[in-house]
Amino acid sequence: MLRHSIASIVALALFGLSRLIYSIVISRRFGVEVLGKVNSLISQAFLLAVPLSFFAVALGKYASEFLGRGEMEKIKSIATLGFSFPLAGLVLVPFNFYLAILAVLRALQLTFRSFIYGLHKGEVYAYTMIGAFVLFIGGFLSENYYLPYIGLLSGVAIFGFLYLFRERLFGKPSLETLKPLLRYSSFAFLGTVSGVFLIQAPYFLTEKLASPEAAGIVSASLSAAFLLTYLPQVLQSAIMPLYSYKYGKNEMEYVKRLAEDSTKLLSFIVALAVFILMLVGREILSLLFGFNLGREFYLTLMAVETYIAYNPQHSGAELDKICKRRDHNFTPGRCGFSRCLDILDKPFWRIWGCFRALSGISNDTNWHISCGKQEAGSFAHFLYSICCSSFTAVHCISLKNSPVISFCGIRWNIQKRNKKGVRAV
Questions:
Q1: Which of 155, 261, 306, 355 is the most exposed place for a label (fewest CB within 10 A)?
Q2: pTM check: above 0.90
Q3: Where are the alpha helices (DSSP H) in 318-378?
Q4: Residues 233 and 314 in one domain
């Protein structure tokens, strides 16, 4: 159990650092506009990878379940089904080669990670990530700025397939295993795509609606601040076995208390990290990236802190009976409607650029949290979304004139959301 947790932390740390290292190197070698363009395409590929890795979450769940029962043939069956589905993305190669390749490789990486964790072999994924990270670093020797990420993701895919073939974990697919996979994946997909929209959309929306230069600045800020978003995943990976064990023994009071304590601890650690970054983060990152980051970096930190306030609650909720209610609340419809409002705000993107993109993350996350008990599509839900879009301009103006005022206002909002979230879990 301890080995699995440590391996999960190592793998998450390497993958999280890869985006920051990639952004720094591309920025210094090719400039901020190229940084914006390449991160825009990578984010589109990561978003496309979600439907291509449709069976990923269910694959981990049923791999663990069948392993406990000793049903190895069923494990082989679901492995064949799960790893075949991402290959459908290859049909997009004639339209956009790099988009298709990155999306397929990312989907295979997500599928392998979920499957190998389901088999309680987290150390295998950690070793795979270490090998893939070497290919990632080697990719910088080329002038092709997509090659490092292709190396990273293809490394995971190649090492993953070699392991699966060596352990003979592929078998004949059957309708008996397809049905539960399809049923659970249809349900889990709703929550997954919502979170990915929230994280990846600012990269390519900024490039499309503002400018490549603004997208590059957003990429620099987000690639650094989003390292904090791996903290909930590290925490979840570290304590998930204990959660599952106590939940299996039906000790619901212990599960509830552990969810509350872990959320409070995570919120405190993130707040402390954000405070330190507010003091020295902008200067350090400006030195690393080779251009001066503006006050939009502070808004990035606020947005990420708000996102994390939502994220651990969702992760903890997956372990008890409110999972179904939450995953229906965090639907693609909410994120999709929110992004439609972003597109309608195109004049604001042109005027405020980076500020518009980064304040949108904070607004969208607050929407998710505050509307958690509202029915999607309700009139109140609609009004709140309009308010989120309208207050974007206020956030931008307040941050440009006084970051302290904006910071205090958003911190008060986060505190309220955290209290509601902890009680819900």
A1: 261
A2: no
A3: 323-329, 332-344, 346-352, 354-370
A4: yes
